[in-house]
Amino acid sequence: AVPKAAARGAFILFEGVDRCGKTTQSTKLVESLKAAGVNAELWRYPDRTTEMGKMINAYLQSSLDMDDGAIHLLFSANRWEKRAAMEKALGDGVTLVVDRYSYSGVAFTAAKEVPGLDLEWCKAPERGLLRPDAVLYLDMPVDAAKTRGGFGEERYETGELQERVRTHFRVLREDWWTIIDASGTIDDVHSKCAAAADEAIQRCREGAELARLWD
Ligand code: FDM
Which residues form the Thymidylate kinase-like domain (predicted)? Predict the structure, then answer.
């Protein structure tokens, strides 16, 4: 008999406005998956370690200025340069827990100017990237997020812009996303994230295929 191919890993994405708890929750999810014997890794975008990532980092820290369209394409290219490696890892059975992806890319760029670059323009370079198996959207009003120690020093960390980001996330939302109220306790939010992650991992074990954005 032909040996059955090993199950692929799941692509589990965290999205939400700044300070909603994505970093805490994605870290915690990877820890709990590993403790349960799941081969899991934490990835994040922008990936600031690559050459493009270094430019993005300089832009976010305001030491580099760039046209809104150009920086949008650079954020997107930063996902494209990692696409093959993501696909390989998933194929090797690694579950990838990812902190931000294309949805942040679109929501942030479209929120920068009013009127700015429209959603369809922003989505175009993302088409063909991997579609997550699950999106865990940590929902939180911007005012509540702001009280969590306030926004930092980087570009985009203002209440007004984050409000528009949240509005765009609402438009981008699809019915298969898991919307999680992020105002609960860390453990409470974690258990909801873990349940949604388990369900996605199970679907991948049962043969769910990797899809692409935005089909
Ligand atoms: N951001 C993030 C974008 O503008 N486009 C993108 O494609 C991505 C992935 O970069 F303000 C924004 C969102 C945030 C900033 O993200 C850096 P982290 O998660 O705070 O490092």
Answer: 14-192
Residues 6+ apart with CB under 8 A from 4: none
Domain boundary assignment for the chain: 11-209
Query: Among the CATH numbers 3.30.420.40, 3.30.1300.10, 3.40.50.300, 3.30.450.180, which is that of 11-209?
Result: 3.40.50.300
pTM of the model: 0.97
For residue 32, report the distance from its CA to the centre of ligand 1, in Å. Answer: 25
**How many angstroms separate the alpha carbon of residue 69 from the centre of ligand 1?**
15
Nearest-CA residue for ligand 1 atom 6 is 105
Ligand 1 and 156: CB distance under 6 A: yes
Q: Which of 17, 7, 29 minimizes the C-alpha distance to 161?
A: 17
User: DSSP label at 137?
Assistant: E
Which atom of ligand 1 is nearest the CA belonging to 45? 9
Query: Average pLDDT of 180-201?
Result: 97
Peptide bond into 214 cis (omega under 30): yes
151 lines ligand 1 (CB under 6 A): no
Atom of ligand 1 nearest to the CA of 101: 9
Banded pLDDT at 4 (limits 50, 70, 90)? low
Question: What does residue 99 show for φ and ψ, rounded to 5 degrees?
Answer: -95, 100
Q: 33-86, pLDDT tens digit by residue?
A: 999 999 999 999 999 999 999 999 999 999 999 999 999 999 999 999 999 999
Q: Is the CB of 60 under 6 A from ligand 1?
A: yes
